[in-house]
Amino acid sequence: MPGKVFLIGASPASDLITVRGASALREADVVVYDNLADEALFEGLDAETIDAGKSAGDHTLTQDEIEKILVEKAREGNVVARLKGGDPFVFGRGGEEMLRLREESIEYEVVPGVTSAVSVPAKYGVPVTHRGISTSFCVVTGHEDPTKPEKQVEWRSIANVGTIVVLMGVGNLPEIVEKVTDVRGPGTPIAAFERGYREGERVVWGTLGDVVDVAEREDLRPPAVIVIGEVVRLGSFWEE
Ligand code: SAH
To answer: What's the CA gap between 47 and 80, in Å, rounded?
Structure first.
């Protein structure tokens, strides 16, 4: 009998995964996980575990290799849990994996997770929308260098959205800050939430005018969720 692949959002912490995600995980014969998935999730499971962790510059498996493993393991009749940090469809390449499974006629189910984009700021009391302060938010990748000519991210339009949430943005923080400052001004509050829900988590915060210096002084590191906009002032860390 052919198997099935669950594309599961691991959320940022082992106790934030959905009930459905946790039960799919318990059913799994094989677990293929990313480095952003909390390892506590699959401790004690009776399953083969495969590390597909891909920290920048240290590719354990290529995307194509990961997809091949999902297909092969399912064809062998296994229930496969493909565990991705946060939500599988928010910059997780979950869409690509789903399309590959569909193309290969493998049964699959997508189990959403709690995205770090919303939950990590929430932990520190920052709501991405707030009545009277922000009526919209967008989640954008900061991985793309805003100064390169063939860029796809339109920073001028993005900068006009109420709350801007940047994932994978630590490396390009100065360029991103410069683009957004042009539209929003240097007094706009910004916070970077590093390693949310994990050991050593912290928040580095300031305004667009000073955050680049603060981040350098405090040695801000990925992974971090960066939030730009007036809602940051509601955060539990903010003191005027
Ligand atoms: N699918 C994931 C995002 C994958 S992109 C989700 O929905 O959360 C990877 C980026 O997500 C990181 O570079 C960082 O910006 C953010 N991220 C994921 N987990 C995080 C955490 N626990 N703390 C801070 N940032 C996190």
So the answer is: 9
Task: Please tell me which residue in 73, 84, 168, 179 is annotated as part of the active site.
Answer: 168
Q: 118 C-alpha vs ligand 1 centroid, how far in Å? A: 10
- Residue ID of nearest Cα to ligand 1 atom 24: 224
Per residue in 122-174, pLDDT (tens digit) is: 999 999 999 999 999 999 999 987 777 778 889 999 999 999 999 999 999 99
Catalytic pick among 4, 34, 87, 98 = 34
pTM strictly above 0.85: yes
pLDDT over 70, % of the chain: 97
The class (CATH top level) of 116-234 is alpha beta
The domain limits of the chain are: 4-111, 116-234
β-partners of residue 130 are 134
Atom of ligand 1 nearest to the CA of 193: 24
Instruction: In whole angstroms, give the CA distance from residue 167 to residue 148.
Output: 18
